[in-house]
Amino acid sequence: MNGAPELPELYGMPAVSGWARSYNIALIAWLGIFLLLFATGLKTLKRMGRLPPPPFTATDCIDGKFRFLHGADLSDITLLAVGSSVTGRSLDAGALQRHYGPGVKAINAAPCYLRMNQIGFLADFYLQRMGQVKTVLSVFAMRDFSECASNPTEFFDVNEAGEYIFGRHSLSYLYFKNFRPVPFLKFVLNPPRTERDQYGWAPLENEPDARRDVSLDKTCLTHLRRMSKKLAQRDIDFVVVLLPPMPAWLNEYDPDGARDRAYRFAVAAHIDPKHTLLIDAAKDLKLGDQHFTDPAHLHRDSVPLLTQHIQKKVDQASRKRPLYLTQS
User: Fold this and answer.
1) How far is residue 118's CA from residue 116's CA, in Å, rounded to a whole number?
2) Are the C-beta atoms of residues 223 and 151 closer than 8 Å to each other?
3) How are beta strands 135-140 and 79-81 bridged, if at all?
4) Could you tell me which of 248, 254, 223, 49 has the C-alpha nearest to residue 149?
5) What is the 3-state secondary structure (H, E, C) of 103-133?
């Protein structure tokens, strides 16, 4: 009716002015244009090979490993290598699969920068979705057992990562939800050249560097015990491999080796002996600085030495008690 008040005024609310309505429409239109341009830009970067992996953590070597797993065949995995980059860089899972035959299907699913609490969280995430795993293998250095108290355990969203890795969904919305311009642009301008084989091994070839000192965090040992106990409850063999110490690191930060020995003793005391095989490579595998890139990683040319040592120790242990790896 002519002169009748607008509906909002009937309820005591001010009517939306024509200017405000136009502003809202323009805002929505510009937002739509921005989203369209951003989506188009993502597609263009993908075609150019410069699109970063979905930003679950905005750390390329973690998100990059998730991208690798997204495209990998994860059905019927029986040997799961999980850990930090100590495992990701220093273990050839493919060699283990070839050694143990067709009954073993292996994947190195270890990313980087993780601590023991986060490794346990990641292992649990994988195992809840990989029902055929019979053996979990982790290569550890002292660095894995530092700073657990100051690093968040749940470092990614398990529902989103599960949809992406195991559901094979693209999850493009993460580029909007978790957009971080600096790491995004750094990747676009200079994509990292990570060499990774079909089993997830990403070796290093850097010159030896003793890097920095690390200190054992007892909180990490609690998480190791928890992970070992969970694997035992699942009837999964846990193979724990301790990387030998880098001589240059010992000379610089632990001349008498006391802290290194204490760390190895502590790890041995916090695992379930019935379901865990401890391989302390320092006992039999004597490596020089030239075998390392840093205290936590072997040079790619030395990775076969450790992998073959693991095979030997697993085979020897299987003579005393059955291990799933040797039953294929």
Assistant:
1) 5
2) no
3) parallel
4) 223
5) CCCEEECCCCCCCHHHHHHHHHHHHCCCCCC
Domain boundaries 60-156+188-327, corresponding CATH code = 3.40.50.1110
Task: Kindly give the residue spans of alpha helices, DSSP state H, lying in 171-289.
Answer: 174-177, 181-189, 218-233, 247-253, 258-269
List the pLDDT tens digit at each of the 328 positions of the chain.
Answer: 455 555 454 445 555 566 666 656 655 655 555 454 455 655 666 666 678 889 999 898 999 999 999 999 999 999 999 999 999 999 999 999 999 999 999 999 999 999 999 999 999 999 999 999 999 999 999 999 999 999 999 999 999 999 999 998 988 888 878 777 777 778 767 777 778 999 999 999 999 999 999 999 999 999 999 999 999 999 999 999 999 999 999 999 999 999 999 999 999 999 998 889 999 999 999 999 999 999 999 999 999 999 999 999 999 999 999 999 998 6
Give this prediction's pTM.
0.86
Dig out the tokens for 72 from the structure: 């990998």
**Contact (CB, 8 A) for 74 and 102:** no
- Residue located via tokens 């559901």: 167
Beta bridge partners of 320: none
Helices 218-233 and 116-127 pack at an angle, to 10 degrees, of: 20
Contacts of residue 169, Cβ cutoff 8 Å, sequence gap at least 6:
163
**CA–CA–CA angle 183, 63, 276 (5° rounding):** 140
| Alpha-carbon span 144 to 118, nearest angstrom | 10
Long-range contacts of 191-196 (CB under 8 A, 24+ apart): 191/49, 191/50, 192/60, 192/61, 192/64, 194/61, 194/64, 196/68
Q: How far apart are CA 142 and CA 264, in angstroms?
A: 8
Q: How far apart are CA 70 and CA 164, in angstroms?
A: 6
Residue 86 to residue 201: CA distance in whole angstroms: 11
Antiparallel, parallel or unpaired: β 297-298 and 292-294: antiparallel
